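Running log. JK asked me to keep both predictions on one page so they can be read side by side. First protein, sequence followed by its tokens:
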Amino acid sequence: MQVTSLLSQHEHDHLGHDESCSVCGHEHEHSPVHLWQTILGVIFVANAWIMDWVISQSSAISSASAFIGAVILGYPIILTAVKDLKRGFMSINELVAIAVLAAFGSGDYKTAGVVAFFMLMGEIIETRTAEGARASIESLIRLTPTKARRIKADGTEEEVAASELVVGDVIRIRPGDNVAADGVIASGQGSFNQATITGESLPADKKPGDEVFAGTQNLTGVLEIKVSRAGQDTTLGRVRELILAAEKTKLPIMKIVDQYMGFYTPLVLVIAALVWAFTHNLDRVIAVLIVSCPCAFILATPTAMVAALSAAARLGILIKNVADIELAAKINAFVFDKTGTLTTGQLAVSRLAPLGDTKPAELLRLASSAEKYSNHPTARALAQLADEAGVPL
């Protein structure tokens, strides 16, 4: 059956903005920048330097090229700074915008372009890393099918959207299907892969009366399940909320950044004003503004954080709070209380124990022959051993 993310496109667009801000560790607006736009601006700025180097009499052409490149690169930053100010919020966007405008005012368009370029590259790296993390995380929760086979009162099946399921509905799950909602098995037996919910890599056998979870996969058997929780109330829905909440948590260092950024930008502006008052040298003022932009300091921790979330998600590890990642650096020992979480989930026959005069090969032949048409993990382990041993079934 077709599988899709729990997040609709609308939700994804909304979360993509709000969560990326939370992941950054601060609340400033993000520059509306595209990679192609940055590359185009860099080409114009680089062309200005090349023209100065190759043709000594091309100052007008060089300045025009640098001006175009600086406008392309600086426009998103200045626009974002204005939005921040309208919201009554001051951040590093204002520092960079002032530095770019000061370079423009002095006629040094190449410097303005370079300053804007480094800021935009930081934004691009941060955004792309966050998107990669979110894609990996969503791949874990892209397990609930969009359709379900609901059983009507007359016993026939009807295919409905999984979002239409309500408590009390009975759905039919075939081998290979993902479960569309939490429920209790009404009839049938099967083996379920529940690793995404319980962490257990070993498939669990289920019978009538046992509970099953949305997003788990039915490996064998046809079952009828009475829905007990649907939609966002399912266990997988709560896992989704847990993952998204983890992106909004902050490391201690990020909280410190938030606390002091409101004072940092005004302080830098005061220092720049003092430099201008004592030197009347615009280049030095620009240097103060550029050097004071803590892009690397602000971007380093959030980028590392979302990269860690992404790597963990690809390994099937759900992190509830990003502060736990920092604490993990201090761990020197692990204590596990369940062996099921430390296995691969691939069953294998460890030994044969025939009774009486039965030979091991005969025991393997009979057992494997009985299970040859079954897809149960235990049956597959027997078939694999029989195949390796060359036992005819």
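And the second, directly underneath as requested:
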Amino acid sequence: MQILRCLLISLLVVGAASCTAYQKAGKSSYRVAIVQFDTIPEKNEHNTKQIERLSREAAAKGAEIILFHESAVTDLVSDIDKYSELVPEGPACRRIEAVAKELKVYIGFGISEKTRDKFYYITHVFVGPKGYFYKYRKTWIWKSSDDSGYRNEWARYDVGDGPELFNVGGLRATCFICADGDAPRCIERARLLKPDIVFYPSNHGGESYYPQYTPRAAAIGVPTLIANRTGKSWYADCKGGCAVISGTGEVLAKTATHEEEILIYDLAIKK
């Protein structure tokens, strides 16, 4: 009986410790940076350097959390195996991880991911002061009638498991990517998680998409960070369109141009 009692106490202590990972009060305000820049398709080295440079600029402005757009390292790719990288072992991940450690910030960035057993995902990677800690794999991937611009994700990529909770500096966070937000089930799953913040990276851009984003943020009921690219992808001239949207669907801040820009915002978090 004594052994059983000790075992039960141990389980309760472990359970309590795991819960506090999400129950930490954290802070009431976080300075966030949402970055739009021109990813050059299949130029992983160049794009990684841009992410490093822009992360340093954002951190110099006091940013604690820095968000880049979908597939920021790779964009869409013609040869999926050649240009995709392992996560977190790939060179881009390791370099951006080193920057996050050095600057003591959290960075979220998109990449085309491959696994050693030849699965491929559109992935958003999160690194922080202690290194790599989370990745989200796009689930409701885009289905195109053809593969022009290498855009038929349905034919080219595998799918993830949908939104889940992860911890960013004491915040209960969740993430989904671009076309994920078109799926009502994705929005519902995100809402049921009761996060403090939503990361919503995309890769098409422009303010014309705000009428889609705002009701999604309102449906979840918490602040949502929208990251979009600027410049020319394979298939479009993208117009940026980064934004911070409140839990009621109000656009709190947005990028002012179609050029490279770092949107800085002091985001209040209600606990």
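Observation for JK regarding the second prediction: The CA atoms of residues 70 and 209 lie 15 Å apart.
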